[in-house]
Design a protein that fits this description.
This protein is of the alpha+beta class. Helices cover 27% and strands 16% of the residues. The protein folds into two domains: 7-96, no CATH class; 99-147, no CATH class. The protein is built from four helices and four strands; from the N terminus they run E-E-H-H-E-E-H-H. Bound molecules: iron/sulfur cluster.
Length: 147
């Protein structure tokens, strides 16, 4: 896995702060941020890269630019371990999967395949020939990624 941290700060009290800048018009609730995976995964990376050891306090900080709000959260060692386990299990499920159903939704607007994906509301109407990969016909195959 790779991630790009917007800003990494050594705070005056010695803590490491992982800062992320968001342009969404609304800041999520504290409860949502306390369950957010993105910056917690960054925390795993920062710890693994040696920027922070297990005893260093790590703060997760979000800057919501439009409402001009700053929010922060922390994770316990148990929460980080649970996230690590859940993420590894999710990767195992993805790697074992044989079929990948299209799941159209709001993210289609940002998807680079939106005009070529028949499941997308932005589909340009051109039929893409399905390419079979083993027993599964995958959206990636339908999009021509295996040609
Ligand atoms: S356009 Fe198709 S491939 Fe892209 S997110 Fe939407 S459903 Fe998935």
């Amino acid at each position: 896995m790779q991630g790009v941290i917007d800003r990494l700060v050594r705070a005056p009290d010695g803590a490491i702060e992982i800062h992320d800048y968001k342009t969404s018009a609304r800041a999520p609730s504290q409860r949502q941020l306390d369950a957010d995976r993105q910056l917690a995964l960054y925390q795993i990376g920062v710890t693994r890269n040696g920027a922070a050891d297990r005893d260093t306090e790590v703060r997760l900080v979000w800057h919501y630019l439009l409402p001009d709000r700053v929010r922060s959260s922390t994770r316990s060692a148990q929460q980080i371990e649970a996230l690590r386990r859940d993420t590894v299990a999710a990767i195992d499920r993805i790697e074992a999967a044989q079929a990948f159903e299209a799941r159209p939704g709001p993210l289609c607007s940002w998807c680079e395949y939106r005009e070529r994906c028949p499941a997308s509301p932005h589909w340009n109407g051109e039929a893409e020939p399905a390419v079979r990969t083993g027993d599964a016909t995958t959206p990636a195959a339908q999009l021509g990624l295996f040609r």
